[in-house]
C-alpha cells in the first residue's frame, strides 16, 4: 500500500455502526479507531488501512475510499491520460462526455494551480483536483490496488452545478479551456440536475440565433425541436460536473448512428429518465457529488501509483 494512506481517513460520510456496535458501515473502522484516528501514529493508521479490505467484504460495503491524498489523485489522473490507460467520463447516466484519445492519437496534460488540463484531438478536459475531491472504488477484491472503475467524488458542500430545466443562454463561455473559444456562445440544454449539466457552444452566429429562438423550452422538447440543428451544425458539447468539464468537438452521429472512435458524447433520454447520477453499482454516499468516472481500457488495469 502507498504511504499516502497514512494521512488519509477512510471516512466516506456514513457514520453508523453495525448492529453489533463494532464497525462503521461506511469506513469499516471500529469506534475506537475512529475516535483515536487523529492521534494514531503513521504505523497505527497503516495497520488500520491494512485491516479494512477483509472488513469491507464481511460487512458487504461496496463503496470504499482509496488511500490517496490530493497529490496521489493528481498523479493517477495524469498517468491515466498520458499512458492511454482508459476513459474519463463526466456527466450523469444518459448525458455524458467521454474523454479518450483516438487510436494512435496522443493526449497532452498540464497543471494550472489545482486544475489538470488534458487535450487530445477532438476533446479537452479540465478537472479541479483539490482537497475536497476523494477517490472511491466499488467492491473490488484487489482493493486497495483499484484496478477497476474509480469515481472522483466531490464533497457535496463544495460542489454542484445550477439545475436549470429549460434551454438557457449563458452568454460567452468565459470558462472555455481554449482562450480562443471564450467569446463563443454557451447554451445549457436544461437537464435539471445538480450533478451535471449538458451544454452546447457555438461561434456561428446563425446557429446561436436559432438556439436563442428556443430559449425557455423545457428539456423534454429540446431534442425534438433542435436535435436536427445540433446534428447539422455540430456545436461543441460542454459537459460540466462539480469537478470540472469535458469539451467535445467530434461529429454528432445521426439517430441510430454509431459514436465516433475516440472522444464523444451521449445524450439518451431513456437513460436520463432513470434519474440516476451514475450506473448501477456505483452508488455514492449522500455526502458526495459525482465528479468523473475512470474506466480502465479493456484488458488493462488502472494505472498503479
Overview of this protein structure:
It is a single chain. The chain is 21% helix and 28% strand. The longest helix has 18 residues, at 42-59. It has an eight-stranded antiparallel β-sheet. Strands 1-7-8-15-2-3-14 form a seven-stranded antiparallel β-sheet. With 305 residues, it is of the alpha+beta class. The protein has six helices and 15 strands.
Summary of the model, kept short:
With 305 residues, this protein is of the alpha+beta class. The chain has helices at 31-36, 42-59, 70-82, 205-212, 219-233, 269-272, and strands spanning 63-65, 86-92, 95-99, 107-112, 115-120, 123-128, 133-138, 150-155, 168-172, 185-188, 196-202, 236-241, 244-248, 264-267, 288-296.
For the biggest β-sheet, the strand order reads: 4-5-6-13-12-11-10-9
Structural class: alpha+beta
The biggest beta sheet is recorded as:
8 strands, antiparallel
Task: Tell me what portion of residues adopts beta-strand conformation.
Answer: 25-35%
Question: Distance N terminus to C terminus?
Answer: 9 Å
Calculate Rg over CA atoms. Answer: 21 Å
How many H/I helices? 6
Mean pLDDT rating:
91
* Order of helical and strand elements: HHEHEEEEEEEEEEHHEEEHE
Question: Based on CA inertia axes, which overall geometry fits?
Answer: elongated
Q: What is the helix content?
A: 10-25%
Task: Point out poorly predicted stretches.
Answer: none
* Number of β-strand runs: 15
Amino acid at each position: 500500500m502507498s504511504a499516502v494512506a497514512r494521512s488519509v481517513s477512510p471516512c466516506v460520510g456514513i457514520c453508523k455502526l453495525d448492529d453489533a456496535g463494532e464497525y462503521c458501515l461506511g469506513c469499516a473502522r471500529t469506534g475506537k479507531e475512529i475516535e483515536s484516528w487523529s492521534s494514531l501514529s503513521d504505523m497505527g493508521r497503516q495497520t488500520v488501512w491494512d485491516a479494512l479490505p477483509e472488513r469491507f467484504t464481511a460487512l458487504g460495503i461496496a463503496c470504499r475510499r482509496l488511500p490517496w491524498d490530493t497529490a496521489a489523485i493528481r498523479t493517477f489522473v495524469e498517468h491515466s491520460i498520458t499512458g492511454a490507460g482508459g476513459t474519463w467520463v463526466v456527466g450523469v447516466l444518459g448525458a455524458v462526455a467521454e474523454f479518450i484519445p483516438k487510436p494512435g492519437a496522443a493526449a497532452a496534460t498540464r497543471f494550472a494551480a489545482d486544475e489538470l488540463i488534458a487535450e487530445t484531438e477532438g476533446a479537452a478536459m479540465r478537472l479541479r483536483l483539490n482537497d475536497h475531491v476523494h477517490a472511491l472504488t466499488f467492491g473490488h477484491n484487489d482493493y486497495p490496488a483499484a484496478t477497476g472503475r474509480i469515481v472522483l467524488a466531490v464533497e457535496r458542500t463544495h460542489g454542484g452545478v445550477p439545475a436549470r430545466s429549460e434551454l438557457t443562454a449563458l452568454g460567452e463561455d468565459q470558462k472555455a479551456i481554449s482562450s480562443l473559444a471564450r467569446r463563443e456562445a454557451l447554451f445549457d440544454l436544461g437537464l435539471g440536475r445538480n450533478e451535471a449539466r449538458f451544454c452546447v457552444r457555438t461561434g456561428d452566429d446563425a446557429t446561436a440565433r436559432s438556439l436563442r429562438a428556443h430559449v425557455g423550452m423545457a428539456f423534454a422538447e429540446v431534442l425534438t425541436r433542435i436535435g436536427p440543428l445540433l446534428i447539422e451544425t455540430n456545436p461543441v458539447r460542454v459537459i460540466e460536473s462539480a469537478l470540472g468539464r469535458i469539451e467535445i468537438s467530434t461529429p454528432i452521429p445521426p439517430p441510430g448512428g454509431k459514436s465516433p472512435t475516440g472522444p464523444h458524447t451521449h445524450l439518451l433520454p431513456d437513460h436520463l429518465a432513470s434519474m440516476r447520477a451514475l450506473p448501477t453499482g456505483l452508488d455514492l454516499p449522500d455526502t458526495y457529488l459525482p465528479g468523473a468516472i475512470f474506466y480502465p481500457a479493456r484488458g488493462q488495469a488502472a494505472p498503479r501509483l
